[in-house]
Structure prediction request, 230 residues.
Amino acid sequence: MVVQTDLSDAEVDRIFRALADRTRRDIVRRTLLREASVSELAADYDMSFAAVQKHVAVLKEAGLVVKHPRGRQRIVRADPDQIARARHLLVRLEELWRDRFGQLDDVLADPTTQE
Amino acid sequence: MVVQTDLSDAEVDRIFRALADRTRRDIVRRTLLREASVSELAADYDMSFAAVQKHVAVLKEAGLVVKHPRGRQRIVRADPDQIARARHLLVRLEELWRDRFGQLDDVLADPTTQE
DNA sequence: CGTTTGTACAACCATTTGGTTGTATACAAG
DNA sequence: CTTGTATACAACCAAATGGTTGTACAAACG
Prediction:
């Protein structure tokens, strides 16, 4: 299965930036396991509701979570596809290293190279 | 093969933060393919030598590149292992999602679960 | 209705980031 | 030894980040 819609530099910036914070990584982890409202999330961190709200906004801008309304709450859910895209960026770097002496053409032409 | 020495939150912060910049990702890419001195790197970016020096420092703090002296130059080389560790963090997130309805106990106890 | 709960958003603030220039030092080359 | 090159590092600056408080509004509740 291939998810890979190519990401712009700015999008990649946002994804890694969003992941570069413990609280935000924790929000992703939690909402990956089970969606939660912003206030449910906020209850578990030692900071204001508004601060958590901002963290969720950063994650949403990065596409790592989606938000949808349910009554007066906003339900947050992590997007595993976006996490997979981030992982794929690192995989591509690693592939680059593995093939660093080789000719990229062959790798691209190789019909066994898929994901 | 297991690389996984567990990373602290601060270390993970540094790794993702370091990757959240186009210039730094490009430096990683380049020095993954072929080591380069700081001035060789600096020549290719539209910013001062000092700015590139700082980017390399951020990458070094994150463990994504290593620097070693060669005469008067400082040779920069990307560390594929650290990139693999970063990837593994995302893989673990994805696994969490995959197993989200399952009982974690069983997974931990399963003798076939190894890496 | 009025009250409480959940969210949005603006204004503000300290710190960090990403860039600059300038100065100092180390090594290589004449 | 002198000169040029590669690097280090400090000081500075604007903008972004990560937090705060306060205000406003919408939905659920009594």
